[in-house]
Amino acid sequence: MQKRFVSLWFRHLLTDWLTLRQPELKLIPFVLVAPERNRIIITATNILAEQQGITVGMASADAKAIIPDLKVIDQLPEKADKLLNRLGEWCIRYTPQVALDAPCSLIMDVSGCTHLWGSEQQYLAHMLNRFRAKGYDVQAAMADTIGAAWAVAHFGNTDAVIPPNDHIKALLPLPPIALRLDYTALERLRKLGFYAIKSFLSIKRSALRRRFGNEFLLRIDEALGNVDEPLQLIHPIEAYHERLPSLEPIRTVEGIEIAIKTLLQSICERLRDEGKGLRTAVLKCYRVDGGLVGADIGTNRPSHNIEHLFKLFALKIDSIEPALGIELFTLDAYKIEDVSQDQEVLWVSDSCDLHSNDLAELLDRVGNKIGIENIRRYLPYESYWPERALRKATSLTEKPATTWRTGRPRPSIILPRPEPIQVTFKLPDDPPILFIYKGERHEVKKADDAERIECEWWQSKRPHRDYYVVEDQQGRRFWLFRSGHYTDEGAKWYLHGFFA
Question: How many CB atoms lie within 10 A of CB 251?
Fold first, then answer.
């Protein structure tokens, strides 16, 4: 595939943004300033100020001498980076590979994307028209290399689409600064009389290396395409990523459902062929108005069952607000796991144990509706102390390290920490005849014999516990215990659980 790149240059990024929020600024020249070495220096200008000779780097006092009524606004720290990042995220609707080029440019790898808009010219024009309609002054170029696209966008013809394999020809008449060279190299080129790239491009590399260094040659190689230039993408592309652009904005539930099914069809076919299934997936919907909405799902076990995964997304379609319409859908599978052959056999099984896919799918649907964090599975843990005798499982298929204790009944709700109670009893070793818990008095009508639970031997300093199952006058059953012997100093009673 022929590699193609786009460079977008927002010439007045911050001042355009301010004008969008304060429309009255559109009719007056204004600048942004910041202190530098005991001087107030201009860091950004709007178009009106630039047309009257105001440039970045000029002292504010000098600019005031040129335009007495020039409006001066303090620089907005870090705003340019945040704004550029937002614009980059908006551009993902045109290609998934978007990188920031601070302070005011974006680089996009558009290989294989332009045909969706008809042609490369239509692709670039559609993108620029959208930005300009919003109020941004932007220039762009498309070429075979990042360096060539950047050079033409900043110093060549506006909105140029350089035909494939013509990028070197487009570079020749441009000034050396178009190669993104450092200040020292540019000064040396100026002193030697090299005012265009074509004037030194044919010189032997050994001579250029001696005079200008390796960084100089690297910039040339990147622009010519001899060396690949890496991109630091805003959102690195997931290994399992699908995109679905819409020729017409989607505004209906039916349209969103069709889009989700189409994306799932593509990604699940690939997963099935590779013997894998997804555990988590994120749907993103890019709206015409620039908004981003979506939904995410999770499964208890890897799945590539289209029908099941669609049911999970269907639970969240109501939360997707299309507004003026959705123009791009993307689906990313962030967590992928292997699907074993055993699972495929169980897919048609009627079993209803933990290995049943019916159970896994039910938990997926409930979890994606109320939040997967609200569904918990517990496994036994090797500890005598009841509050430590279980732990939260990490998945539906995790195996327990030990077995549950089934010798005596356990309450359906065990408090994470036993809570103190006041008790009255006839004999010291007997269960209480009444107890007070949180200010409520409970008269005990029935009680089982005591169950003694000792602490682990390496924690032998802790007293043992004598547990009782008691029932009050209203038929409610509780799990109480006395800590230590009744003769022990400081022996106390606690409530530890509730029976259903």
Answer: 14
